[in-house]
Every structure is written in structure tokens, then in C-alpha cells.
Amino acid sequence: MKDFNEAVAFHGHTCGGLAMGYKACELAIEKLGLSFSEDEEVVCITETDSCTVDAIQAVLGCTAGKGNLFINNWGKTAFSFYRRDNDTSVRLVANPECMPVNPEMAELRPKVFSGKATPEEIERFHTLSHMWIEDMLNMPAEKMYTVKETTEALPSHARIYNNVICSVCGEQVAEGLAPVIDGKPVCIPCLRK
After folding, report:
1. Is the pTM of this model over 0.90?
2. Which residue range(s) make up the domain with 188?
3. Residue 88 bridge partners (DSSP)
4. CA-CA distance, 49 to 72, in Å (whole number)?
5. Does any domain span residue 185?
């Protein structure tokens, strides 16, 4: 498994969300025997668009461009992982009681993110945040997540389309995503006009 610092390098900074995503990868690897997905061997359907998703991209190689990362932004820290070669899957849902946030950190958070915190408050927030992240990284992943059965079907392999030209705007569009209207392809944005 890739090191947490590799996820940090991909994401750009360390944060609690990235640590949560890293621990989800750790548990998915343990439960399904996953490794980095060079193509579409591993698939993830995430129920959030938070920082957690960057850990999944960095550690397991699931990306939207390869067609093995699907984001349902439902605001839930929950992830369904699928292993194509043996048709196994698992859904991991964050346990809300596992990582209580330090009350001081919770109080400082709105000040820091609104730009109203003093330099001392910012420094204290970052100190508390780093301690919280370390606690997460040292916690057993099975305490952080509830393991459930997946509810979403395994998505099919990514499809590669030929391109056509939209008859309205003249821009190139994937053939499979351009409905044919009056015998001519039309892109989705032009359909909405």
C-alpha cells in the first residue's frame, strides 16, 4: 500500500478528509485484497466529493478518466469498492463516533476558514488538526468504518466513443453522448438551450 505521504503529495496538503480516505483504502485493501489499479481492475463509487476521494485516487488508482471512479455527491463519507477479477465488493461507511473532534479545534475551525483567526489561533488549529490526523492514521481502520454490502451494481467497463461534430455549436462531442435530432448529432449543452 502506498504511504500516506504519497496521498498528501497528490492532494497538495494534509487534512482529516485525506486521512479518512486513506483509512478507507487500507480497509478496502484488507477486505478485498486490492492493489493499485493500472486500468479498471478496481472500481470505486464514492458518496462524497470531499478530500477523501483524492486518497482513493492516489492509493488505489481509481480515476474518473479511466472510468473506475464514480462520484455520487450525496454528502456521505461512504465508499463502495469493487474488484472485477473475482466479483467481490464492499461498502465502507464512516462511523460517526470513532473520531470525536476536539472541541477547541471545532471552535477554531470557522474562524480559520473565514480568515478571521489570529496567527496564534491558526497555528493552534493546525497543531490540533495534525494531532487529530495522526490519531486517525494510528487507529485501526475497522474502528473508523462500518463494513456493509454494496447497494450499487458494479459499473460496466469504460466505453470509448468516436467523436462527432455537434450540428448546433460545431464542437466535437463523444458520439455516444450526442443524441441525434432530425438526423444530426446535438451535444447536451445545446439540447438544454
Report:
1. no
2. 160-193
3. 83
4. 8
5. yes
